[in-house]
């Protein structure tokens, strides 16, 4: 786990080639490394954008319209959940509860939290970046 965490921190993701190197160095099958990398949601096998958007789909956020927020973000960026834009600027993910239920619906861009969102606010927020 620690090696995968450090590798992802350095490279931003865990491509199959690096997983193979890790497996070889540890003397274990690639399938074991791949199994850990795909089991834990903290790891990603694809590069992420400079700006990582996470939209909460926890109960409070979902009830207050987070699906519409996701739809608007994807519409503006031309993405789908799990995608990174071709220019590498944006990646979009749905997340579980981020612990800001009182601000529902919530979206994060990197470490910045946006709460009590409406669909109409999305273009302006994205333009700031």
Automatic annotation (TrEMBL):
Pfam families: 2Fe-2S_thioredx. The keyword Cell cycle does not apply. Binds 1 [2Fe-2S] cluster. It is an enzyme of class 1 (oxidoreductase). [2Fe-2S] cluster binds at residues 56, 60-61, 97, 101. Its EC number is 1.12.7.2. Keywords: 2Fe-2S, Iron, Iron-sulfur, Metal-binding, Oxidoreductase. InterPro entries: NADP_DH_HndA-like, NuoE-like, NuoE_dom, NuoE_N, Thioredoxin-like_sf. GO terms for molecular function: 2 iron, 2 sulfur cluster binding; ferredoxin hydrogenase activity; metal ion binding. The keyword Transcription does not apply. Its cofactor is [2Fe-2S] cluster. Belongs to the complex I 24 kDa subunit family. This is Iron hydrogenase HydC. It comes from Acetobacterium woodii (strain ATCC 29683 / DSM 1030 / JCM 2381 / KCTC 1655 / WB1). The lineage of its organism: Bacteria, Bacillati, Bacillota, Clostridia, Eubacteriales. The gene is hydC.
